[in-house]
């Protein structure tokens, strides 16, 4: 028996309506309906409240249901991945700093460029994986980091202008390339976010 069917049977056995259960659990009636039809699954806190409310053990509620088990595992997986992503970002920053100060050593610069690109590829693939299992949208993620992205890019742009004014040729060239890449990344993020926002609005309208 599926998880949703167990919930429905437990509710009907106690002669309760979806509205009554929703009010007791402080959720909407549509949420209860979605759980019972298997369109979505409750989080761990809601599961505990359901278990107490229906006087059923958690093991009885989620027994042999892969969907709800997978839903419960997602936060733990994301929690374990987050420090890895942060570490890779720190390493990338170190690569950028090292590249800026080794422009006179061609072999060292090429080596750092390759290592930085490989690290960036690892971050991208890791982000794709977290996007696949996370309910967090690209819109909300960009809104959270947007201010910092613009601030850092503006500071680097200011450093680039100062470098050109002080005739620091090689450093200014590297900073110019870096700033160009950052502004391009911001434009792509803005375009992607606007596209996702329009797609979401259209889907909700339908």
TrEMBL record:
<keyword id="KW-0238">DNA-binding</keyword>
<protein>
    <submittedName>
        <fullName>Helix-turn-helix domain-containing protein</fullName>
    </submittedName>
</protein>
<dbReference type="InterPro" id="IPR010982">
    <property type="entry name" value="Lambda_DNA-bd_dom_sf"/>
</dbReference>
<dbReference type="InterPro" id="IPR001387">
    <property type="entry name" value="Cro/C1-type_HTH"/>
</dbReference>
<dbReference type="GO" id="GO:0003677">
    <property type="term" value="F:DNA binding"/>
</dbReference>
<feature type="transmembrane region" description="Helical">
    <location>
        <begin position="83"/>
        <end position="101"/>
    </location>
</feature>
<feature type="transmembrane region" description="Helical">
    <location>
        <begin position="175"/>
        <end position="193"/>
    </location>
</feature>
<keyword id="KW-0812">Transmembrane</keyword>
<feature type="domain" description="HTH cro/C1-type">
    <location>
        <begin position="7"/>
        <end position="61"/>
    </location>
</feature>
<dbReference type="Pfam" id="PF01381">
    <property type="entry name" value="HTH_3"/>
</dbReference>
<keyword id="KW-1133">Transmembrane helix</keyword>
<keyword id="KW-0472">Membrane</keyword>
<feature type="transmembrane region" description="Helical">
    <location>
        <begin position="148"/>
        <end position="169"/>
    </location>
</feature>
